[in-house]
Amino acid sequence: MKNRTIRFRFFMWLALHTLIIFILIALALFFFDLIEFLQHPALLEEELEELMVLGIVMAVLFPTGLAGAWLVAKLLLRPWNAMVVQAERISAGCLASRIEVENPHDEVGRLAATLNQTFDNYQKLLDRLHRFSYDASHQLRNPLAAIRTHSEVCLKYPRTEEEYRGVIGSILEDTDRLSRTVDQLLLLARAAGGALREGLTEVDLRKLAEDVVREGQAIGETRNIAVELKAGSTPFLQVGVPDLLREALANLLDNALKFSPDGGRIEIGLSKTTDGFSRITVTDSGPGLSPERRLSVFRPFERTSGSGKESVGLGLALVADICDAHAGRFGVDEAPGGGCCFWIELSAELQGMMSTCRTALN
Q1: If you write DSSP's letter for every residue of 100-123 in order, what string do you get?
Q2: Boundary residue ending a domain (160, 192, 224)
């Protein structure tokens, strides 16, 4: 019974009900004729003929009823069968295809729409994985190739102690760059892989921003860059993963420090939007971005020239993924006095998500 199709089971269900109805009709007519016979014994032969005709009619109608049941089962399950066939085609590799939704309001249409959304998400994940794998392998290959080149050159001829120190220093710089790249790749994977389920809690964004600003001020002092926080004195609570939110804000500030000129100014602000989102802004006094660059600056391994500092282009991509993981929004606008205003907005709906997660754990 386990290997039988839904159509066969549905047909058997209809056939059984058809048989029961025929039996009930036959029994009803039989008892009706029996009562007639008891009241009029002389009509025995006529009653037998009627029962014989009834038997013949039911013998003809029963197969007809079975055929009708099979046809009804086929018609009712045709949308489901078409959905299965199309899903099998997509599973076999036709990822661009989708299930046709005839009526989006019935059960079949709602299921088809849900499956199509799942296939869309899967397609986006595959595309992102392919692009990310290619870019990541390229970024990891460069420092590894540099380490190998420095090592081979160093071993080719005898060197003085100072020369060995210089080569080892270059190798350590490449190793440090490789380590930073790997750490950022792991954070990207964590942000996109359900990190919210691990550490969702209530965070004071004001306190978090104060810690990040304090570190930024120490770096900014070397170039006379003023780093200020405008967030008031009251707690600014938001549900999220503290480590990821800190990383996102630190990356925005690091990006602002790279592109702000000596003697510039960076301002970090906290506010609430009209639709309840927590908004974090990082405004710098750098050269700004063209509208075209604003659309691509959050992509992985995208670099902006002019900073004078080496970067693998993962900082803003981390911000985007962390923001997505928190059901938020992100973007960059032109600052009023020139430069850029990077912003992220975090949804208040995470409070309900945290309550759901705690309920599930309990």
Answers
A1: --S-TTSHHHHHHHHHHHHHHHHH
A2: 192
Considering the domain architecture, whether residues 210 and 312 belong to the same structural domain is answered as yes
**Helix/strand/coil for 269:** strand
Instruction: Enter the tokens of residue 319.
Output: 């911000």
Q: What angle (nearest 5°) sits at the alpha carbon of residue 66, between those of residues 63 and 68?
A: 110
Contact, 174 vs 212, CB < 8 A? no
pTM comes to 0.56
pLDDT in tens, 46-93: 666 666 766 676 677 667 766 776 777 677 777 777 777 777 787 777
- Which residue range forms the structural domain that includes residue 147? 124-192
- Dump the DSSP string for 11-66: HHHHHHHHHHHHHHHHHHHHHHHHHHHHH-GGGHHHHHHHHHHHHHHHHHHHHHHH
CATH number of residue 185's parent domain: 1.10.287.130
Which residue shows structure tokens 């990891």? 140
Residue located via tokens 């080719």: 156
Give the three-state DSSP class for 156. Answer: helix
Helix (H, G, I), strand (E, B) or coil at 279: strand
Residue whose structure tokens are 């590799």: 93
Q: What is the pLDDT of residues 342-362, one digit of tens each?
A: 999 988 766 555 544 444 444
Residue 302's identity, in one-letter code, is E
CB atoms within 10 A of CB 322: 29
Q: What is the pLDDT of residues 107-165, one digit of tens each?
A: 777 888 888 888 887 777 777 666 666 666 666 776 787 788 878 878 887 888 888 88
Rounded Cα–Cα distance for residues 212 and 271 (Å):
17
b/e 226-248 (16+ beta carbons within 10 angstroms → b): ebebebeeeebebbbbbebbbbb
